[in-house]
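Reminder: ligand-aware prediction takes two inputs, not one.
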Amino acid sequence: MRGRCIRIFLTFFVFFLFGGCAGKEEVPNHAVMEEEIEREGKDYIVIGCSQVGSESDYRLANTESLKSTFTAENGYYLLFEDAQQKQENQIKAIRNFILQEVDYIILDPVVETGWDAVLKEAKEAGIPVILTDRSVRVEDERLYTCWIGSDFRKEGQMAGEWLKKYLQQQNRQHERIRIVTLQGTLNSSAQLGRTKGFRDVLEKQKNWVMLDYQSGDFTQMKGQEVMEYLLNTYEKIDVVVSENDNMTFGAIDAMKEAGRPFGIGGGVIVISFDAVRAAFKHMMAGEINADFECNPLLGPMVEQVIRDLEAKKEVEKIQYVDETYYDSSMDLNAVMKSREY
Ligand code: GYE
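Here is what comes back for the chain with beta-D-fucofuranose:
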């Protein structure tokens, strides 16, 4: 694997000379090159990782998990690119990884479609692509090696089932229930799966009405904006289903500002996804009724795949992480204390 280091050094050098890279982390400098020279002779596995962005607490924890897994101490040289939630940035990053002849590409695709061409290029270059967190819809599944992430549809179904039970406990199972959804980035696996999963349950409840779906792009700021719009538009809202915690934080601010009651004390029932540490504080304050976990700590699972591929072992095409949910009936303080994200 010695050749790997030399190869990437040379490519960096060519890129440096001709200014061929667009993203800031891709432009090599002398320090990078010197480091490479020092490393020459060691067995590094070179990884090109294209991350969605830094839009949420989930995302920051996910990035940290990848960066702390693919370290030099563990035998990796990691090229990490933050796409700022733009597919075009991811496509550019992948093309640069191919030019740099990395050993593996890790891709967390912002949306599901539009990947066939660039994944074909990676395939032709003989570089395995490991998808993580979100997935892709491509004509030929062989364009990627495997996918590791959450069962988003199941998360949405769990949220729907939880609401059904909660309403029964409150003896509201026959009431008209008006729901709004803050959707994540449209056409992302997390949005599609959670929306579909919740709808699976919704469709069977005659008295539930979905008033509106609006995308808040998984960010707190847009979550707040969208919730303000929904509160201004609909006089009565019984439930908000918010497809991630950061949008929920924004929605909470909007409801507070509008003086609308919400949470476990009555008013709008708040359902969220991710269950990051900051959300536990809101749950304990009675501001989020239930939160459906999405585990961002995927680095070690991705590494296991790479270890297996290095050892020429077969890898499972689809790999799910274990997940659960939390609500105010549980000992949240204890969970929060041991929470890693
Ligand atoms: O729920 C959200 C993030 O893809 C599962 O993306 C991920 C989602 C997560 O921005 O917070």
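The longest strand covers residues 208-215. The first helix runs from residue 2 to 18. We will return to this case in the review session.
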